[in-house]
Fold this sequence. Notes:
The chain is built from nine helices and no strands. By secondary structure, it is an all-alpha fold.
Amino acid sequence: MSAxxxxxxxxxDEVLPHERALLAMAMRLCGNGEDARDLVQDVxxxxxxxxGWAAITNTRAFxxxxxxxxxxxxxxxxxxxxxxxxxxxxxxxxxxxxPDPHQIAEGREAMSDFQQALGQLPERCxxxxxxxxxxxxxxxxxxxxxxxxxxxxxxxxxxxxxxITRALEPRRRTxxxxxxxxxxxxxxx
Length: 189
């Protein structure tokens, strides 16, 4: 009668009792019995060749993690695609490019906020902003039409952008941060 090695005793006592749980997980990972049984055998082979086997404190968790890692490795190396995956992919609904109702509502609200901010700009700033940023006219053309220097045009455009940006900022201010009704809140050029 041959002597049983310590690793064999450990395998019988600590590994084999978890074979059912391992096979169930392998079935979920592989999708078919044959591949699942192969995965279980690969896990058993790894368990028997693990150098630090005596230091494993939770054999079941170690086996399940090993099975998961081996299954992922197999999927990465697989060059054959399961026919069911192709069929599933063909029947999958493709995402639409059209915005959903929530996005449409948000867009309308943003546009309304922008139009309100634009309407509150001083006339000179609004004119420069609309012609340059919305109508995309050249700065030289706008400056010539309005009889302005390019420097003045740039200052008005910068002021318009600043005021619009400030108007569109999220309302995070507390009551004491709110501007005075008459002084600070009035948009000036």
